[in-house]
Design a protein that fits this description.
The structure is a homodimer of 400-residue chains. The first copy, chain A, is of the alpha/beta class and 400 residues long. Helices cover 42% and strands 18% of the residues of chain A. In chain A, helix 6 (126-136) packs across helix 7 (162-201), helix 7 (162-201) packs parallel to helix 8 (224-235) and helix 12 crosses helix 13.
Chain lengths: 400, 400
């Protein structure tokens, strides 16, 4: 009763389970639809999310703090009431966006940064992040972490002399290592402060289905020892779930898979595991194979708006000439409101809409791509339940 | 059986009737949702139009001719199949857009103009317009007309000497008169050619519920004698319905009402009457009061995208500070998917979406404004059926 995660089945390292929140249960693995500013982009509405059985919605703390502000959202009854969303919701800590901003000042206490909207100087730290998230009112909230880049942001020009290059690379790597080590240390300190701030408002002895759940974030870049240090420190704290942060931030997919190989199975088996900001269909499959349960990413929606549709036979560029008079739907096996199992909108119509830049085209493409992602997660769950994940994965990766 | 319009009731000059098309019956008066490029703007979908009981959809021949081209639409089975729209549809003749283009060459034969997309030189005349519309496949199509501006496009600077001003104005008026007289003559000639082109493809002795209907357009600007000449010439031709064109093109509303006073009741009583490109809620009410049955206008959708919502208590600017924390819906008496009779999205949420430029805000505002327009038309029909139009009108205009 005091658990928020039931493991139902495994297939290799892949896990199928149930995440229990105060707004209902969610079958894992799952993908979260990103509603950055309390709306899915391209005009996709809650009724569209219903139609594609989107399980969980993610909103971004940084953007909502700037506009409309957490005070207003709280006054309006929280994000669920504000957006008319009855699905479980998760908010990030705002850290990822803040650390993406060029002009910022990071100290052990927190971060000063300038709003991208009006340049206003804003302070954020663990206590503030948790307070904002409490006011937004999501069912799962994230500890405030330092999310460093996977590469140095202002590396010196590499030397042209090949003899010097090796030493230069080693020095760069050392610099990055120390930067990430500092981030790991801060992340642990801020994780403790996040828990304290959460406990100050919610009785953490209450079952996690009766309060917002707090997830901790493991940092460490692609350095095995730093990942292990962070994992050890973060998982020692009484979080409701654990996320891997600082991945999918520019490093090659193979580097990310290596970190997952080294780290994922060491995450507590009785808690949900969340890989933040990931990713392509291939990334999702590889990460589920390594034991991850939860994902979020702007890819499917952003690619949709830019004209790329996902199908079970791979990606397609809807604006390509070849689809000019195509009576096919995007994916005949897709039951989304756009494809309607083959009876929906043709590629020719979608191509027309995207070519003339009609918003309806972007909305349709987004609905389909999100539907595909949710379909992919449900399919993976079925294959895990049938203990057939590896054979399925091998076949799926040939096409996707 | 061979009629496409049944007059059910009148209240003063206002008419309630039934327009019969090959895709079903429509209760008049009605407003058409504008789907310029085979889509309602702002991502509004067919399911949204269903939800607000939009009766008829209008597409623009000019835009569809340029992209994706009528040949493709025909190949895809026509607009209904292309857009997955089972409502009656109307296409305009393309004339209005062509005559809005600055660089064009009009002759008695037709018009040369340059595409606004790529500058390509294109010829359009009555035969071509009807052929394009046949291929697009709407249920009601429009004759090709010359739609002149309500004012001279390049008038000379008015003289600064007041003594000369009166003469100058008279000369400008004469110039405009001759321009519009030419347009009236061409419109009649092109109307005949439009009918011939239509008859070459469809047997006009067939009931209008078994073929596309062809509407004629009366021109004449704000000159009573020219309007009467055009009306006499156009209504002498075997059209299925009659439109008033060349109004709502910049003249004051009062000038338009005067033309309607002079002309509308002389339109055949047994055919539908269509006032093209109109208008504001007030314009719709004043025109229905003068016996008009059909309308189309980009106003409600464009204003929605720019933040103005229509309600039964008048317009509201959703981005106004006063709505920052408003828990009201746009209009508590509105049953649209956005308002849900008071249980829908708050003004605060819509204000947030519009403030941060989320497409969902534009989509919601558009759905609501179109719903309001359709609601307004249904209300007017009820008041006509109850022979209570004038008292209702007087009360409604105080608020709208």
């Amino acid at each position: 009763m005091n658990k928020n995660f039931d493991l139902k089945s495994t297939s290799g390292q892949a896990r199928a389970g149930v995440l229990k929140t105060r707004r209902g249960e969610v079958q894992t693995p799952f993908f979260m639809s990103v509603a950055t500013r309390a709306a899915i982009k391209a005009g996709v509405g809650m009724e569209d999310l219903e139609a594609i059985e989107a399980p969980v919605v993610l909103c971004n703390t940084y953007h909502l703090h700037l506009k409309p502000g957490e005070a207003l959202v709280e006054k309006m009854g929280g994000l669920h009431e504000f957006m008319k969303c009855d699905k479980p919701m998760l908010t990030d800590s705002g850290g990822f966006q803040v650390f993406s901003i060029k002009r910022k000042k990071i100290t052990d206490e927190g971060v000063w940064f300038n709003s991208h909207i009006d340049g206003k100087r804003i302070w954020i730290d663990a206590e503030r992040s948790i307070d904002i998230q409490h006011k937004l009112g999501a069912d799962m909230i994230m500890a405030f972490d330092e999310c460093p880049p996977s590469r140095l942001q202002n590396p010196m020009e590499p030397p042209t002399n090949p003899a010097e290059l090796k030493g230069w690379k080693r020095r760069q790597e050392r610099k990055l290592y120390f930067k990430i080590r500092t981030a790991v240390e801060r992340t642990t300190a801020w994780a403790k402060r996040s828990i304290d701030a959460h406990a100050a408002k919610y009785d953490l002895s209450l079952p996690p289905t009766q309060r917002p759940q707090l997830f901790g974030i493991v940092q460490g870049g692609c350095f095995k020892d730093l990942r292990e240090q962070s994992l050890k420190e973060i998982t020692a704290l009484p979080f409701d779930g654990f996320a891997l942060g600082g991945l999918a931030v520019g490093e090659p997919s193979e580097a990310m898979y290596k970190v997952l190989d080294e780290i994922a199975e060491k995450l507590p088996a009785d808690k949900p595991r969340y890989l933040m900001g990931v990713g392509s269909p291939k990334d999702l499959i590889e990460a589920v194979a390594r034991g991850i349960d939860m994902f979020d990413c702007v890819f499917p929606a952003r690619n949709a708006r830019h004209g790329t549709a996902y199908t079970w036979n791979g990606e397609l560029r809807i604006t390509n000439q070849e689809f000019e008079a195509s009576t096919d739907v995007l994916d005949v096996s897709c039951g989304c409101p756009v494809c309607q199992n083959g009876k929906g909108y043709t590629r020719a119509y979608l191509r027309h809409l995207m070519t003339v830049d009609e918003e309806l085209g972007k909305r349709f493409m987004t609905i389909h791509n999100l539907a595909f992602y949710h379909d992919l997660m449900r399919t993976m769950r079925e294959q895990i339940m049938a203990d057939n994940f590896e054979p399925w994965k091998a076949a799926a990766l040939v096409k996707l």
